[in-house]
Structures are given as C-alpha cells and as structure tokens.
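Quick note —
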Amino acid sequence: MMDGKLNLPPVTPMANQTVKAQNPLILRYHRMIEAFSKSDDERDFYLDKVEGFLLFIDLEKDEADLESAELEIKKNKERFPLVPKLTFYETKKFMEGFVNEKVYDIDIKEKLLDIISSREARENFLEFIYDHLVELDKWQQYYHERSRIRIIEWLRSHDFQFVFEEDLELTKSMVEKLKMNTFETKVPKDVQTARNGLVAKSKTYYSNEALNPRPKRGRPPKQVAKVEVEPQLVVDMYKMVPPQVRAFLFTPDYCGTAVSFSAKFDTEDQMRASLRGSAKDKIDTRLEMLSQRLESLRHISGRLKGDKDLAAIPTESDRKIMSAVTSEARAADEQPSAMSKIAQGLIPKKRGRPKNEDKDEPHKRVKRVTPIKYKKEDEE
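Predicted structure written out below.
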C-alpha cells in the first residue's frame, strides 16, 4: 500500500522559515483518532500547524534524537500543539454515554454499569462488549462518532484550517497535486478550483452541525450488508519537516481496525488475538473427545455394511465377531420398527380389487341395506 511511504526532499533553508500553506491542511482522520486514543502519560503526540504532519515522541528512540526533538518543540510551541491525553473522566464518560444512549437490553445495561463502577473498568468493559456482537457494532460506531467530535473541537480550539482526506471527493491525482503545491501561490486552474473546494469544505467543520450531527430525516434506508471499502489515500509529501524531528514522524498505514479503546493494546487486532487465546474461547476437550468417538463409530459402521467378504479378516475370533455383528445388523434392518407398525395401522388401504390373501379371510361383518319399495301407478 502506498499509504506508509514518504516523499521527503532534502532539507532546504526554507524548511526553517515560517511559511503559510495556500490551502487548508489535508489531515488524515484515522491517524488523528489513533493519536488521540494512544496519547497518555508515557506517549506524546504533536500536530504541526504549518503542514499538518504528526509527531510521536517515542521514548525508545535514541537519547540524542529525543533531546534534539525536545529542544525543537520547545522553541516552536505554537507550531506544535500537544495532542490532549485521554483522562479517566473522559474514558468513563465514553462508556457511560454509550450504555445510556445505545444499549437497550436491561440486563446488559446493568452489567455494563457494574463493570464501569469496578476496577479495571476499561478492559473489562471491552471484553464484555466483544462477547456481544450486536453491542460491539454499536460501540464501534459510537466510539468513532464521539472521537470525531472530540478531534474537531480540539482542532477548532487551536484555529486549524483543515479538511480530512477521507472526506474528500476528489481523485487521487488531484489530491496529490494539492499536496505538491501546498505552498505555491501560482498554480494551474484545476488546482485553484480544487483549492476553492477545500476552503468551502473546511468551513463545514466549523459549523454547528459538525459538533452536533443531526439524524437524517425521512424513511430510514434499507438494511444492506455493510461493505468495508479501503479509502484511496495519497502518498505523504512533507516539505517543512525540521531535521531534528524527522525520526519521530507518525505515518502509520491505514487499517480499518487500527484504533482500540484499550489501554493495554495498541490495535484492535491485538486485543482480538488476546481474547481468542483466553481459556473461555478454547474448545472443551470433552466435546472434542466425544466428536472423535462418534467419528470412529461412523467409520466402523460403514465398514461393517460394506465389508461382505469375511475371509479377508485375518483371525478367526475377529471373523466370528464380525459375522455376529453383521447378522444382528441385518436382522435389525429386516425387522420393522415400532413406528412403522403404528404407521401401517393408521394409513388406510388403497381401494381396488382385494389381494389373494384378503379373499381367504372370512368377512366378519356384512352390511345389510333395506331395499327401496316403489308404489305402483295403479294404486292412484
């Protein structure tokens, strides 16, 4: 996939100057929500206001690189605002809002509220949700909707003029041209037209509906199978990255399940793998043994029905056992079952000529019919 590639030109003197972008910053929403969900006391994320790239200050990097990046960020505090960290209060608010707004089953709602008020509420909440597929779909949709509002609020508070690349309805080639000419004042006519469209799109994020999305009116759409379509994203092209922070660029590839609400796992795939490896998801050994025994019995019964040559059996004892079992099986097949006897008594016989067996049997009851007497015409 081209998402993770970078096109970083050599550092020029212009990289250290304050240059203004000629169009709204094209941000990636899936990267923003990932940064917001992972930002904590041990992980810092910064968003550049000049070009819109993200920095992830990874403490596992070289100490010299960490010191130079820290100095660069301190010198340009206004350029690199810190992504807010998800507090315990916000975490609890996420979970309680979902339970109160989206969960309708009383038993599930009570169970989730008990989990939220207990220890390790975040992980236990997710573990319970992932055991209920109906609630899981609603939770993922709710989490993305609330996170989107939270991200837009923060961007608006720092006066970002932006658009999300996932929301654009432009071709990949046009988005690539926009990124290549971000700081150019004179551009071709088609690029200028696309810029005007970006400006109009950026204003929608500052509307009231961006923070309070209203449900669409009219008849709800038919329930159609949801198809996951990977967005067509353009290669990253950053020109204003200071050399001191290049090692900390946060450019993960797009993944539909990349974001996790968990504090222990970075991605949803990792959390699912941990749930699959738990003891509750393993197959019961007794059921497995029972299925193996049933399979062996089917194999033996099929062999008994198909094996007509007893001479092929090597030992005399095995031949006796085989002949006894096959004779019992044949007798059982020839003998009518109790259900067949009952069915024969209930089903009426077909009308027609009696069989030879029925002719020999005497008629136990004869139905007598009174003859009809006709009056003579003379008696008038």
